[in-house]
Design goal:
Distance between the termini: 35 Å
Order of helices and strands: HHHEEHHH
Strand content: 5-15%
Number of helices: 6
Number of strands: 2
CATH superfamily of the domain at 5-86 and 126-141: Winged helix-like DNA-binding domain superfamily/Winged helix DNA-binding domain
Helix content: 40-55%
Structural class: mainly alpha
CATH class of the domain at 5-86 and 126-141: Mainly Alpha
Radius of gyration: 18 Å
Length: 149
């Protein structure tokens, strides 16, 4: 199981916004450079995140994006569920349980368990927790954090 690049970029963009000082508005260019996300793709992603209530935006010279809610209140699960294509995590033929081959039924059960475990794991992580872990890794590696607003 693997997240789409779109979903990964969205999570990275949310982390960048969460790391901005005091909820400052960040311009797309700053997020794109910091997270190494193609600017055009990021524009689409941020638009989707705005529609989903994860970010808010302001137009104009002093405009930009910021989180719509505190970073600790946004779970990775809700972002993934919002952005991933419905049904992308389903497997097997789309038939009722009584009409499936036994092997199809077993695979469906295994996939359902795996999906449930994955969603449970994603629920345990918030955007704030991702940022905390990233800071910890940067500290261990001796990396500096700089942000241009």
């Amino acid at each position: 199981m693997k997240l789409s690049v779109r979903c990964e970029y969205a999570l990275r963009a949310l982390m960048a916004l969460a790391e901005a000082p005091d909820g400052a508005l960040l311009r797309i260019q700053a997020i794109a450079e910091r997270q190494r996300i193609p600017k055009r793709f990021l524009e689409q992603i941020l638009n989707d995140l705005r529609s989903g209530g994860f970010v808010e935006s302001r137009r104009g010279v002093t405009g930009g994006y910021r989180l719509a809610r505190p970073a600790h209140a946004i779970s990775v699960r809700e972002v993934v569920e919002y952005l991933e294509v419905p049904g992308a995590t389903n497997t097997g033929r789309n038939t009722s349980p009584g009409n499936r081959e036994a092997s199809d039924e077993v695979l469906h059960e295994v996939w359902a368990q795996a999906q449930s475990a994955l969603l449970h794991a994603l629920q345990q992580w918030s955007i704030a927790a991702l940022c905390d872990r990233a800071r910890e890794l940067r500290r261990q590696r001796g990396e500096l954090m700089d942000f241009v607003i």
